[in-house]
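Protein modeling request. Please complete all fields; requests missing the sequence field cannot be processed.
Requester role: graduate student
Desired output: 3D structure, token encoding
Chains: 1
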Amino acid sequence: MAIQPPVPRISSHELLTETQLVNVNRADFLKEQLLYFLGALPVLAAALYALLFYPPFKKYRLFFGSLIFTLAVFVYFKAKGYYAIGLYPIYLSFGAVFLGSKLTSRIGQYLQVLLIVIPIALYIFLFPLIFSVKAPNYYITHAEKYKALGMLRWEDGKDHPLPQDFADMLGWKELATKVEAVYNQLPNKEQTIIVCDNYGQAGAINYYSRNKNISAVSFNADYINWFNLDDKIENFIRVKEWEGSSQELAETIPYFETGRVAGSISNSFAREYQTTIFVFSQPKTDINKLLKAEIAKMKMRD
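Delivered output (302 residues):
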């Protein structure tokens, strides 16, 4: 049945490795560790020095080895750069305490101010470059600049017209608006379930929909725990990525009296361009039972 999730029968880690991490460059991971905290590098460097040589931090020396070990594991498994971001706040704290104890002279106080100004100045300077604040056409007309910085390379290892994070966000409001319009036209709205291919689609629908009775779910990530199957399902809205949508109607319609394509994302700049919305009504079988079985199967795989 097509309501099954579009994933092979492998573990979540294996799926992630095959679909998202296969093109990750280990050198890029290490480079990104420096770029993410560029303005705070002096504080991080001070933290590492202090953990090794500052007597009051002797009992915390394990944190130095922990950082090296954890980064080594990330490098080995070809993790994305931002996976490691959560490691650094504790080291920024160590560095701040150490520098605060050492920079007590008049010159040291000036250096403290400088350490505050540096990240602020860098943020102001880099903001237009790093954050997606320009219209899509701007990135296309200035493609060479962004390509040289590696910002057009996606996790598939190819260059695209827009940065991946920007393309990910485009189409979210459009998807939510179109799903909401379909939902509002259905009878028995309280007996409608919306199942998406991924957590990004589900999150976008739940966030941008003005109708707060709408609650999209997915077999992807933690959304698998959000299914509410207490009431009998009479309407089934399915949001499918374009690559897996061609057979959806034919595969799912046997379980319902009616089914149709209700819309798709039309923004060609969106990463989810042509993601399709299907709506099925009047089930011929117990959809709740089928979904419960699929959820149980997915949880056993993980």
